[in-house]
Amino acid sequence: MLGLMMNEPLRIAGLIEHAAKWHGDTEIVSRLTEGGIHRYTYQQAHQRAKQLANALTALGVQNGDRIGTLAWNNHRHFELYYGISGLGAVCHTINPRLFAEQLVYIINHAEDRLVFFDLTFLPLVEKLAPLCPKVETWVLLTDRAHMPDPQDATSPAHPDLRCYEDLLAAHSADFEWPTFDEDTASSLCYTSGTTDQPKGVLYSHRSTLLHSYAAGLPDCFNCAATDVILPVVPMFHVNAWGIPYLAPMIGCKLVLPGPGLDAASLFELFENERVTFSAGVPTIWFGLLTFMREKKARFSTLHKMIVGGASCPPALLRAFDEELGVQIRHAWGMSETSPLGTVNTLKPNQLHLSPDEQFAVGTKQGRAIFGIDLKIVDGDDRELPHDGVAFGDLLVRGPFVAGAYYNSDNRSQFTADGWFRTGDVATIDAEGFMNITDRSKDVIKSGGEWISSIDLENLAVAHPAVAEAAVIGVPHPKWSERPLLVVVRKPDAEVSSEELLAFFEGKVARWWTPEAVEFVDQLPHTATGKLLKTRLRQDFAGYEFPAST
Ligand code: ADP
Fold this sequence. Notes:
Organism: Hymenobacter persicinus
GO biological process, one term: fatty acid metabolic process
Protein name: Long-chain-fatty-acid--CoA ligase
CATH topology of the domain at 13-214: Rossmann fold
Number of strands: 25
Shape: globular
Bound molecules: adenosine-5'-diphosphate
Number of helices: 15
Radius of gyration: 24 Å
Structural class: alpha/beta
GO molecular function: ligase activity
Domain AMP-dependent synthetase/ligase: 17-406
CATH architecture of the domain at 13-214: 3-Layer(aba) Sandwich
């Protein structure tokens, strides 16, 4: 027997319709790429998203067409999220920090028909355009006054370049969002390809809305109409962790920081716009912490943040909480999980724990949110116990987890019985708290046992002289692999290998202590700011430990 409820498909356009109708005068504030601050309301954003939908229709955009964006977090990118997906086309957010050859691969693989891009990326687009012949139209996200002069022989302007504001001005806001199946593709995001060619994750209207409901829960982002949210996480990678959908769903003010992601610009926006909640990767929060310490500054309204995308060193959680009064929640996820998978908040039976014990719980990646099921398995796919000790490959499944990659028959990460292999290695404790110990390719296998490179890195960065640290496994004649600690010292800080190794004593099992330390000026990073261990391993290929080991 079927239920008797209205069969109304979940659609992304419904979010902006709701915000425009019930929170019409709530603001969206953006820092413009051209400079200055732009302000308008959900009501105005909705009007412009409908003008965009009319413009796309006039350009011949059809259901399912991929439309690329290369843009910062700003109001025009927000309009693209709604105008493109609302129409039934696919909003393909492209990460401009990727290497040019990866961008060409991604745009060609997705077969983007149009690409909308910010002024910052004009020189990049000039390089990409000849290599992406299937893109019919490139649209610059700016007004007429900021368009490059086509008469100027030195200007790199593409001959068919269109101006976004002109395009919108030529169309009315008289548009009815179409209705279609909620499983219709809405948006596309390629993984950064740290280990392989980038792979496309194709979200649907349904997966996006379910993820937004989950993101808003109290044990997740815990946001309400009274909040002011500033996503530092980019709209060009994993949909800024769903915030551009969540904000209209709850009707709160949204602050989009544009290209200015330095600590001073962020602090200014946090204060001026009375931001209460933000989300970003550890590197961003480290930069902000240094700034706050130097300036002896304090936040007036910001009191909760999410950190994720990479493991968050405990020292960062503690500093924000104790020095700045901001509670950071640690979260884990990936492009394939939309991205939220786990978030760290206490359960009732942990409330009696001492502050130190509660802090230790908070350093883990957290508990599965509703919509995500997790398990850890051994090399034969046998499930491992939830004892907080057994390490295994982390598998996930759920209605906002990828079931396949776009236009690819590579199914190596999907099990026959419906799980996705994350490529992460984790423990799960008796309370269900998951702790990422490594990416499966980074785990160090020493004497048949596994050593977590992340745990060792977290310890190393707690040393006052260490700015950044990476641990990689290096072949060893007796133990097969041993950990090598590679360190960037803080400017003017002095510390020897012996002192650093002594710092590990009593904090980890003796056999986990790195075999040796090497000092470097900088560490290699991926386009999204994560440690690029494949490069580091190449740099240290053939490395031999000092003779005594
Ligand atoms: P890629 O870097 O391949 O594009 P994503 O941007 O989707 O992939 O990043 C997902 C990966 O980032 C996860 O598989 C995990 O390795 C890492 N990651 C994300 N959040 C955390 C976290 N809180 N702690 C440790 N690692 C994390």
